[in-house]
Amino acid sequence: MSGRLFSLPLALVCAAMVVPAHAATIEITMENLVISPAEISAKVGDTVNWVNKDVFAHTATAKNGDFDVTLPPKKSATSVLKKAGTVEYYCRYHPNMKATLKIEP
Amino acid sequence: MFVRWSAAIAAAILLSSPALLQSASAADKPTDPQIAHIAYTAGVIDINAAKQAQKKAKSKDVKAFAEDMLRDHEAVNKQALALVKKLNVTPEDNDTSKALSKQASDKLAELDKLSGAAFDKAYVANEVAYHKQVNGALETQLIPSASNAELKSLLQTGLKIFQGHQQHAEHVATELK
């Protein structure tokens, strides 16, 4: 009886450990032709919420080809980070907009 | 008063001389409705140039550049229209806008006679010159003269984006050589 009561919470804890417990959502904003933060760290499995506050269309394009997100004016989009590494990315339409995303394993 | 300023600016625009642009700053300032009209006109001019390039350009890079111009200038002008509506301001035509339009229609006609690589080169060279001219006017005249804070801020955003366009045009121009 007491064993069964104990096992349910334990199973939940174990399940939580299998699904990465630290999967987080980070927000990266594009406003007035600036990407902020200019440098941010995240982990594989985390979600990036890209927010475009400008009236201009932007992209978040990885130099190494890992991602290419298109952001229409005043829209946001999400992407899940799948690969570790330090990724430099920029906006294809406004190449002066540059930033770095450090993705830890 | 404004005539003096606009005549000087018009001359500066026609001659594309930075020295003349600066000497014009001694004259009277344009008003916000005039600034709005100049900025909007400048946008329309580049939109028309981009539309012409979309039809005539041969190079993939030039076509992509024209598409970028269309997207950004339409966005700025849409914002400008929303702002004048909000501020209840009617943009006022003036000699600077007229000089800009005249210069632009002459350029459109000139470029229309060209085709292929010759068109690409001439269009991009004009984009470099035109953005330089507009950025110069924004920096030395329009932004300092704007009295409404929101108009000033929109012009500043415009300057930032157009400086990027100028760099982009300069880059494309180098690639075409």
Automatic annotation (TrEMBL), chain A:
Keywords of the record: Signal
UniProt entry tagged with the keyword Signal: yes
Presence of the UniProt keyword Signal in the record: yes
Coiled-coil zones: none
Stretch forming the signal peptide: 1-23
InterPro entries membership: Cupredoxin, EfeO_Cupredoxin, ET_Amicyanin
Ranges that cross the membrane: none
Domain EfeO-type cupredoxin-like: 10-101
Name of this protein: Amicyanin
Automatic annotation (TrEMBL), chain B:
Domain DUF4142 span(s) in chain numbering: 31-171
Alphabetical UniProt keywords: Signal
Pfam families, A to Z: DUF4142 (PF13628)
InterPro entries (alphabetical): DUF4142, Ferritin-like
Annotated signal sequence range: 1-21
Name of this chain's protein: Membrane protein
